[in-house]
Amino acid sequence: MEILFQEDSSITMSSDTDVSLSSYDEGQGSKLIRKAREAPFVPIGLAGFAAVVAYGLYKLKSRGNTKMSLHLIHMRVAAQGFVVGAMTLGMGYSMYQEFWAKPKP
């Protein structure tokens, strides 16, 4: 908010409400595509997590003599490992883009 003094000694107040609403006008699909381009390994990590969970649910019936708790622990570790691996690759990719692939002035 900004206070303006005029020559006739009256005070007017102006508020800075001219905020660009372009980010609010963006649709869900285009926002998802933009975020995926900014951080490409996030959707890869989510897809891998979903794939491991789906595989674990598929193999749940044919687990043999393995206890349910042990099967769930193995699936949790596999899903977390995939997500952590995708995050690590994403950080390495970001560091590469920022430090090594940056054009020299």
TrEMBL record:
Q: Residue spans with biased composition (Polar residues)? A: 7-25
The record's listing under Gene3D superfamilies reads:
6.10.140.1320
- What Gene Ontology terms for biological process does this UniProt record contain? mitochondrial respirasome assembly; negative regulation of apoptotic process
Q: Which UniProt keywords apply?
A: Membrane, Transmembrane, Transmembrane helix
Leader peptide range in chain numbering:
none
- In terms of one coarse class, where is the protein primarily found? mitochondrion
Q: Does the keyword Transmembrane helix apply?
A: yes
Q: Where, subcellularly, is it found?
A: Mitochondrion membrane
- Name this polypeptide is given: HIG1 domain-containing protein
Query: Which organism is this entry from?
Result: Eschrichtius robustus
